[in-house]
Amino acid sequence: MYVCLCKGVSDKEIRRSVESGARSWREVQRETRCGTQCGKCACMGKDITREAIKEE
Ligand code: FES
What we know:
Blueprint: E1 2-4, E2 9-10, H1 11-19, H2 25-32, H3 42-55
Antiparallel strand pairs: 1-2
Helix pairs in contact: 1-2, 1-3
FE2/S2 (inorganic) cluster binds next to loops.
Keywords: 2Fe-2S, Electron transport, Iron, Iron-sulfur, Metal-binding, Transport
Family: Belongs to the Bfd family.
Protein name: Bacterioferritin-associated ferredoxin
């Protein structure tokens, strides 16, 4: 499922970013570019990041 339409980032890509070492929403943003344009996806992106970190 796409989380970020502006940058074409899926929830899988966010999870992959956490798996490969991202430890905060900011790091996920830096790596995937999710939420760096209009910002509408930021809430969902943050939630998925938080969940993925918890599951690590
Ligand atoms: Fe993610 Fe616009 S939908 S920055």
